[in-house]
């Protein structure tokens, strides 16, 4: 598994420990791919999570993980978040796909966009997430990845 994907799996674990929000809302979230600036994920729609709140929560989590793909252990504090719903996300049993992209990151703010598609590839919703990252850039657990995300160039690569 590539270093970038290993790293965001560790960051995500922090979101799910002790039965926190992510563990309750989408324990079946699968991270399919992670490279610097981008995360692709999927999850099966279940009876309890077939509503718009799922898309908003995933926008929050996947936007944060997109920031983590740049080696940020702490992904900051949300300053703005929103979603637009285009069509039904599907029915119980369908797989919802998501692609989160870090669209910009400066010294203080990071911007992400998350596109959600149904099993046939149609856009069903999209979200945006802005986070204050000013104090997270110097965390001891931060790393620097190679351009392709395969290796850690600086910091600890924990298997």
UniProtKB/TrEMBL annotation:
It comes from the Eukaryota. It holds the Pfam family 4HBT. One of its GO terms (molecular function) is fatty acyl-CoA hydrolase activity. Residues 49-124 form the Thioesterase domain. InterPro entries: ACOT13, HotDog_dom_sf, Thioestr_dom. Gene3D superfamilies: Hotdog Thioesterase. CDD domains: PaaI_thioesterase. Keywords: Hydrolase. Belongs to the thioesterase PaaI family. This is Thioesterase domain-containing protein. It comes from Laccaria amethystina LaAM-08-1.
